[in-house]
Amino acid sequence: MELAQGEHVLFSGHPSWRSILGYHVGGFVLAVIAGVIAYFASGVGLAILAFGVVLAVVILIGFLRRIGTSYAITNRRLYIRRGLIARHTQEAHLQRMQNVNTRQSAFQRVLQIGTVDFDTAGTGDADFAFRGVAQPEKVVRAVDRAVHEAGDQAQGP
């Protein structure tokens, strides 16, 4: 993300590793199943190899998906970038922002993760959200700071 003159970052981050915990648990179960199948098919050596390979692939994919998504809040705009090879970016200027909502299930509250949804004026983009962020209340406070700074800059000295 290139910053304009006078623009600075107030929040920058990725989804928390805790937000893909379910994915990793499912991947671990899949690795165990692959290991058991390999054990009955060919013995202990192949079982260990199958378990290790499946688990390594699951961990790598989870890591790449997590670091391939980045969020930023500046004193002028909100920014979401997804993807490492193919990229999808979303930006919204703070002046267009109308509402900020957070969602957390009971399990997400325990993990201290959640989703912060942004409603923006005049766009059909209903899917502008920071998903899986750690401590979503901190993201909301960063948005409040950004809106306050943007308002101060608009009023001038």
Describe, in plain words, how this protein is organized in 3D:
It is a single chain. The protein has 157 residues and is of the alpha+beta class. The chain is built from 4 helices and 7 strands, in the order E-H-H-E-E-E-E-H-E-E-H. The chain has helices at 21-42, 44-67, 106-111, 136-155, and strands at 9-13, 69-74, 77-82, 88-93, 97-103, 113-120, 129-134. The chain has a 4-stranded antiparallel beta sheet with strand order 1-2-3-4. Strand 2 (69-74) and strand 3 (77-82) form a beta hairpin. Helix 1 packs antiparallel against helix 2 (44-67). The radius of gyration is 20 Å and the shape is elongated. The mean pLDDT is 89.
What is the secondary structure topology, with strand pairs?
Layout (H helix, E strand, L loop, with lengths): L8 E5 L7 H22 L1 H24 L1 E6 L2 E6 L5 E6 L3 E7 L2 H6 L1 E8 L8 E6 L1 H20 L2
Antiparallel strand pairs: 1-2, 2-3, 3-4, 5-6, 6-7
Helix pairs in contact: 1-2
